[in-house]
TrEMBL record:
This is Histidine kinase/HSP90-like ATPase domain-containing protein. Keywords: Kinase, Membrane, Transferase, Transmembrane, Transmembrane helix, Two-component regulatory system. The keyword NAD does not apply. The keyword Transferase applies.
Length: 409
């Protein structure tokens, strides 16, 4: 058999697959964005707070500055760390609401019209964004209306600059519009992430169902093949064993059945292990000695250094032995047989052939020995089983793993 050149496999990118925007990932992204906004806009508002300290009452105004900017700092640290953002963020809108409502009390002369807008105005948008992140949509919506309403009242007082109704309404409307835009954006992003989480959960559930169904199907195929190969065939062969060769064949099938029962019980412990391809050749050789010592077996060197998972090797060996048993039963007394175990590049190839009676592969067959014990068994582990036969022209069974469709680039 000609050994093909190894297939060129594309070099995978070092960058991993893109992660879907799940709810947890989105919350971390929003937390980082909030932390950046807090640092940037909080730093912009701090100079205005310092400049207005001359017209404010020192103890109370300092408490407001320390409380509000301390809440900004805690939110920024939690956002960058990705932890406890949901605890730190609600502090900002609560402190801000209290500070805005008590603003006239922090001014030294509440009757004196202040020359500028309160410094709280310069961090209003940041506070609204924090409220959108910290609260549920309903509470955040109420907050987006409450803060502009309080500011609308304070802005018209002397301590708030004594602005006209129109001017105060314009400033309040600006905060409402900007806050509403942030609220809508965050709600849409969170809904999209929730939909992704739901889709992933449904996909995982369907995958679990598919795995269980696949495991059930594999167990059914294994039980069918054991019943056919081990019990029914051995009993039928034993009942018809009138010659030494027939009795030897029945004995080998009974021994094979016991071996398969033991290996089936030990399959979970063998999972993850790898065995050389030559192990399949050893198994075929032992069966050949009992069934047909004159059958030709390919040399061990053709198996190469290829290794297979232990469960895959067991499956291929079981299917190959069953093909040899079928040949001994149906090919005829004078049929010549040949066995091959070859490493074709990265593909394991096992061949069982004879020049005996053969059969018509186009006709429907109820023989479990072909359909279950060989074809389904190999296909269920990701390989292929090709059976070429015709009446009077012998039979050749070729097993390959992995399937060419799976191993091609």
């Amino acid at each position: 058999m000609t050994v093909r050149e190894p297939a060129l496999v594309p070099v995978p990118s070092r960058r991993g697959p893109l992660r879907p925007i799940t709810g947890l990932l989105l919350e971390r992204i929003l937390g980082r964005c909030l932390a950046v906004f807090t640092v940037v806009f909080g730093a912009q508002g701090l100079p205005f707070a310092i400049l207005q300290q001359d017209v404010l009452r020192a103890p109370l105004s300092l408490i407001v500055v320390v409380a509000l900017f301390g809440a900004f700092l805690a939110t920024a640290v939690a956002g960058f760390a990705g932890r406890s953002v949901e605890v730190a963020a609600p502090i900002v809108p609560i402190v801000y609401l209290v500070s805005m409502a008590t603003w006239p009390l922090t001014v030294r002369d509440p009757a004196l019209v202040q020359p500028s807008v309160p410094w709280l105005w310069f961090v209003c948008n940041l506070v609204l964004a924090t409220g959108v992140f910290a609260f549920r949509p309903l509470i955040a919506s109420v907050y987006l209306v409450l803060i502009p309403a309080v500011f609308f009242v304070v802005r018209q007082t002397p301590s708030g600059g004594g602005a006209s109704v129109g001017h105060a309404l314009l400033d309040s409307t600006y905060t409402v519009v900007l806050g509403a835009a942030v609220l809508v954006l965050v709600v849409l992003l969170r809904k999209a992430a929730h939909d992704v989480d739901a889709a992933q959960g449904a996909a995982v559930s369907r995958y679990g169902d598919a795995v269980r169904e696949h495991a059930t199907e594999l167990e059914r195929v294994q039980v069918d093949s054991i019943v056919h190969d081990g019990v029914l065939t051995a009993l039928l062969s034993a009942s018809r064993a009138e010659t030494p060769r027939a009795r030897r064949l029945a004995s080998v099938m009974a021994e094979t059945s016991m071996t398969r029962l033991v290996t089936a019980a030990e399959a979970p412990r063998a999972a993850g292990k790898e065995v050389p391809l030559a192990r399949i050749r050893e198994r075929l050789d032992r069966a050949r000695v009992h069934l047909d010592p004159e059958a030709h077996l390919s040399p061990e060197s053709e198996a190469g250094w290829l290794h297979l998972p232990a469960d895959i090797a067991q499956t291929l060996a079981d299917a190959a032995v069953q093909a040899l048993v079928n040949s001994c039963q149906h090919a005829g007394e004078d049929a010549a047989r040949w066995l091959g175990v070859v490493a074709d590049g990265d593909t394991a190839v096992v061949i069982v052939g004879d020049d005996g009676a053969g059969f018509d592969t186009e006709l429907p067959s109820e023989r479990l020995g072909v359909r279950v014990s060989i074809v389904e068994r190999v296909e269920n582990c990701g390989g292929t089983a090709d059976i070429v036969s015709a009446p009077g022209r012998g039979t050749v069974v070729t097993l390959r793993w992995p399937s060419p469709a799976l191993s091609s680039p």
